[in-house]
Amino acid sequence: MQADFRRILTQAHRSNGTAALDAIEGALATVTDDRAETAAQHLATLGFRFQGEDSLDLAARAYALAARTSRSHTAQYHLAAIRTRIVDLCRRQAFDAVDGLLEELRQAKAAAGDRGPNDPSLIHIAWDYELAGDAEGAVRSYLLARIARDQLGAQALTIDGDTLERKIRNLRILQMTALAEHSRHEEAQALHERTRHVLGLEPLQIYDIVSARQAATEGEGEGEYKEMLGPRRIAEPEIRFLEGPVALTSDCGTLDAPPQYVARFKDCLTFPRSNIVLQGNRLIYDLAAHPDSGVADIKDGKNADQIMTAVYGAGRALVEEPAETQTLDAGLMMFGLQSKNYGHWLLEFVPRMLWFNDPACPAGFPICIDDHMPETHRQIVELLDARERPILPLPAQAVRFKELGVAPVPTFFPFDARPGVPVYDSVWPKDVLGGMRRAVLDKLAARGVDLRSTGRRIFLSRKGFVQRQLVNESEIIDVLARRGFEVVYPEKLSFVEQIALYHAADVIVGSASSALTNCIFCNDNARVVALIHENRSFNFRGYTSMIESSGAKVLFIRGSTVPSDNAHPFHVNYTVTPGQVLRGLESVGVGL
Fold this sequence. Notes:
The protein is elongated, with a radius of gyration of 31 Å. The strands form five sheets. Strands 1, 2, 6, 7, 8, 9, 10, 11, 12, 13 and 14 form an eleven-stranded mixed beta sheet that branches. Strands 17-16-18-19-20 form a five-stranded parallel beta sheet, with helices on both faces. It has a two-stranded antiparallel sheet with strand order 3-5. It has three domains: 2-176, Alpha Horseshoe (Serine Threonine Protein Phosphatase 5, Tetratricopeptide repeat), CATH 1.25.40; 202-234 and 243-406, no CATH class; 449-587, Rossmann fold (3-Layer(aba) Sandwich), CATH 3.40.50. Helix 3 (33-52) runs antiparallel to helix 4 (56-69) and helix 9 packs antiparallel against helix 10. The N and C termini lie far apart (97 Å). It has 20 helices and 22 strands. It is α/β, with parallel strands linked by helices.
């Protein structure tokens, strides 16, 4: 029998593995004690060979037989069998059977005195599923990785640095969005239900997406809508580059400016740090209801700092119910997605004050803002409010308003384009930004702020930021300082100080970033040189229409991109040469 046993072992391979292991298992009863350990070693070697052949089910069985046969290494072989079995089941997507095996693994490790790092990496298995585009396989593997983390002290972060909970939520959002876009909203709702308890989330409800105008004028009419500006055409901006014409890869945003309005709605549910307004079975959201919304990757309800989950598709949305809410009698909506970002704040939110100051808007409603915004944001509201309304910062908790006042973004402005769709380069209407500019400058003039042009030349530093950095900023500063430029750090100034500085300057050089948003307040003879990386899909039309709403002129200098594996293409760092900057200044008529 010993010879037969050895022959079966040597001839076993993946094609006859099951039969070979059946024969070996039948022969184990005849193995004598003095040969047991040798037989176990041979079986373990066979298990290792099966692993190399990627026959994990056979390998796990061989290790289990080694554990049965061994007299002194049973615990170690049993541990190897469990580890191999877990990987095999995960790869075959038999995830339900793995839950119990993880507890067996914990016990087997204790029995073997094993504290080593040889447990199956469920995170790597999940990552392989992600790379293969199998979101469900990845979710199930990450769920098991949570158990391994909690019971076995296994790895806590994913390959790309997310927490397991965050990763599972993101993958579920991808899955639910795909279902919603095919009008399978109930299936998406059920999918969320399967994992929401693990993630500490609330149920999702389904809503019809409508614009503010639709919400106020259709159905039961639980709202009022007052149009302040009707539809208008926007002039397509003329973009100027130092190098001459550049073939952009972005799509020009709509040149049809949307109506500007004030609307009021009763009994609304809102979420600070979000633009979502829920009323009954409707979600009031101009961007999501826009005819071009199909190009938008709507981030509202997906960002890490938001207090709910939301997905969109086929004219409906699924939004997570809040666990707790506070109730307010009334308020004006100056809170929302990306409100803490200065560029988004100035372009998307501040123009609303033009309409909130109109007699059509109730004077007694408090102005509600997000509580995580910088102080300069609040300063702008205080400056522009013409009716001495209280300003109410809202914490990250859902708010039910008995009555809510809303006003729109000046143009259709997707946060980002969907994967595979060209970047949507929104164009800003001059009349709205110009109206905001006049309102701010008039307020400052009334306060006695000196707004005369001084001929100053300023360079806007971005040294305090980690994204879209001019890597050789110090080199450029040295060159410009010799030509009368002073370095400015806008984030260190109050809003009033920033506006006075920008308006007084005749020449501004800086990265195309939030700092250039203040060029809306330049004097109408100012010249702006905007430095940026070489990405041809950047929102050059947006920056041009924004800056030139003041009457100033802007020239773009595209530098050299610093390669990055994980930065958004818009936020990569870059360099420009001193020669480029000097040629740019000469091009806009600045004497050097």
